[in-house]
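Hey,

Quick one before I head out. I ran the complex with FE2/S2 (inorganic) cluster overnight. Inputs first:
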Amino acid sequence: MWKKAWQFACREEDIPEAGDYLVYDVADLSLIVVRTEGGDIKAYHNACLHRGTRLCDDSGHANQLRCPFHGFTWSLDGALTDVPCRWDFPHVRAEEFGLPEAQTGLWAGFVFVNPDPGAESLETYLGDLDKHFAPFALQDRFKAIHVAKVIDCNWKVGMEAFLESYHVIATHPQLLEYLGDSNTQYDVYSRADGLPGFNRMITPQATSSPHLEPLEPQDVLDAMFRDFYPDGWAPSRSPRAPRRARSSPRPCARTWPRPPARTCRGPATRRSWTPSNISSSRTWCRGPASGRR
Ligand code: FES
Ligand SMILES: [Fe+2]
C-alpha cells in the first residue's frame, strides 16, 4: 500500500534551507526528502545505485548526496556528479544514473510523497480537503515540538483507536465528564469520481457525555483540569484558563467505571456545538482510493 499512497513525510519548515534533508522511512521503503538549490522539495529513494547502500540517515544538511561506501555522489537535484575511479566505470552514463525519485506534493505546509510514478496528483487525491481545513490556516502555522512514540503493534490497530469514540466508555470512561463520545459525528465524503474519499470525525469536548446526566459547566471544567493538570494548575502554566477553575487538582469523587445513568440520548444537535461552550477535536483520515490497496 505504501508504494502507491500519498503520505505525509514532513512539514516544509523541517527542511527550510537548500541542502536540508530528512529521511522518511515507512515499512521497507526509505526516501530522502531534500530541499534543492532552487527551493523545490524532492524525494529520492535512499539507496545507492552502485551497491544499494543507504545514502542518508535521520536528518541533516548536505550540499550533495554522497554514498558512504565507495563515494558515488549526486547533486541535490539528483544528478550523478562523481564516481571515484571513474575510468573503471565506462558503462555508467551520468544521464542514466540520476537518483530515482518519488513524487512529491505540498499542501498547507505539509510535504507529501508517493513512490508510485503513475499516481494521481496530490491535488486530485486530496479533493475537497482544503475546504474543511480552511478555518485552521495550517499554511500559516509551524511545528513547535515533535513528539513521537514507537508502538509495538500493527499500525492499523494503533490508528483505528483514534478513529472512533465508541471505545471511550469501556477503555477510558474518566473522559465521559468532559468529552462527547456517543455524540461524536462521523462524515464520509466521496471524491468527484464517486470513489471513497476521506472521512471526518468531530468529537465535542468540554461537554459531558450523553451517557451521563448533564453536568454543571464547573464540574466539566474541574474534571478536565483534574486530568490535564494532575500536579495542579498555576496561572503561569495556563494564562487563558477560566477564572473559576480551581488551582489545585480535585481527586475524582467517583469510582470508575460507573454505569451509564441512562441510555444514550442520541446525537447532540449542531446548534449546541458553538465555540462559546465547547472546543472540538476533529480528525480527518484519508486512505488510498479503493482498488489501489
Ligand atoms: S555502494 Fe554506494 S558507492 Fe558503492
Ligand atoms: Fe482513545
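The first helix runs from residue 122 to 126.

Talk tomorrow,
K.
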